[in-house]
Amino acid sequence: MIRRLRPSLDLAYEPLLSPAALLDELPLDDAWAAAVERSRAEVRAVLDGADDRLLVVSGQHGLAGVVLESFLLEGRQEPGDPARLVYGRSVTDACMDIGTTAKALAALSDPVRCRRG
Fold first, then answer.
1. Is the pTM of this model over 0.70?
2. Based on CB atoms within 10 Å of each CB, which residue in 36, 41, 54, 104 is the most buried?
3. pLDDT digits (tens, 9 = 90+) for 37-84
């Protein structure tokens, strides 16, 4: 698909695969499956309050900001041959996926909405 932005600039892109199609095309081996489960467990621990790696900076009247490691897909991968990299997965830090990020932000924002009425 190509969308013309300006007469001299075209933006080309392909739609992302659905998670099911991605798993069919790139199934996880045991090591990757373990890494995915580990990162899911880490996110659950943060959301449940059992892990203090969620950095919360609070001001006088409540939450001022959070730091979350987030990317399109959860986990991380070693940098290497671009043809072997998984699109949407971090090559730096292990990250939560975008869906989990949305849930975490919703969990953080619900009390604010209640307080503000």
1. no
2. 104
3. 787 787 778 777 777 666 555 555 555 667 788 889 988 899 989 999
Mapped to the 3 state alphabet, what secondary structure does the chain carry? Answer: CEEEEECCEEEECCCCCCHHHHHHHCCCCHHHHHHHHHHHHHHHHHHHCCCCCCEEEEECCEEEEEECCECCCCEECCCCCHHHCCCCCECCCCEECHHHHHHHHHHHHHHHHHHHC
Please give the Cα distance from 52 to 71 (Å, whole number): 20
Could you give the dihedral angle defined by the CA atoms of residues 103, 108, 112 and 114, in that order, rounded to the nearest 10 degrees? 60
Q: What span, in angstroms and rounded, lies between the C-alpha atoms of 45 and 99?
A: 16
65 vs 70: CA distance, rounded Å: 15
CA of residue 19 relative to chain centroid, distance: 13
Identify which of 77, 73, 78 has the alpha carbon closest to the alpha carbon of residue 88: 73
Each residue's pLDDT tens digit, 88-110: 999 988 888 998 888 888 888 87
Cα–Cα distance, 36 to 10 (Å, whole number) = 36
